[in-house]
Amino acid sequence: MSILMILFTLLAGVTLSAQSSVNGTFSRKAGTIETTFLTMLTGFIFLTIIIIFFGQGNILGVLSAPKWQLSAAFLGTMYLLLTVIAVPRIGVVATNIAAISGQLAISMVIDHFGWFNSLVVDLDWKRLVALIFMIIALYFIYQGNKRSNAEINS
């Protein structure tokens, strides 16, 4: 089952990068906020249909959930909006590396302190080195994108 979850997660990463690229291009025609809205609306309609036919949870549980947990919807929308803004300006790879670096950084803090009932995992030098390498990769990818863009525009 763990291998299957890793494969699902890899597929999720593929779809996320494809979505970032398509949304970034689409936003040039429709606008940033409009593209984000269309994506969220489409997701709403798609998930409504999935819930109607396959849902087994309690959608009204949202009313009794702690209010801080509802921030997840806002955070997801902000992620989408910020990637739609970033992709046309810095490219898909730089946007995704930056997002992953941000995810790693805050994930290390969340794990270290056990926030949100997560597993407590000590912050060690190996994790910090991994994050530093991601940031170095982001720097080189961004510099390469700037150089390529300058060559195209000249």
Report the structural category: mainly alpha
* Helical run tally: 5
Could you tell me the mean pLDDT?
A: 90
Major pleated sheet: none
- Number of individual domains: 1
Distance between the termini: 52 Å
- Sheet-strand content, in percent, reads under 5%
Which blocks of ≥5 consecutive residues have pLDDT under 50?
none
The radius of gyration computed from the alpha-carbon positions, rounded to a whole number of angstroms, is 18 Å
Considering DSSP H and I runs of 4 or more, what fraction of the residues is helical?
Answer: over 70%
Oligomer: single chain
The total count of strands amounts to 0
Order of helices and strands: HHHHH
Which word captures the global form?
globular
In short, what is this structure?
With 154 residues, this protein is an all-alpha fold. The protein has helices spanning 2-30, 32-54, 71-90, 92-113, 125-153.
What does this structure look like?
The chain is mainly alpha-helical and 154 residues long. The chain has one domain (15-153). 80% of the residues lie in helices and 0% in strands. The protein is built from five helices and no strands. The chain has helices at residues 2-30, 32-54, 71-90, 92-113, 125-153. α1 (2-30) crosses α2 (32-54), α2 packs across α3 (71-90) and α3 (71-90) runs antiparallel to α4 (92-113). The protein is globular and about 55 Å long. It starts with a helix and ends with a helix. This is DMT family transporter. It comes from Gracilibacillus pellucidus.
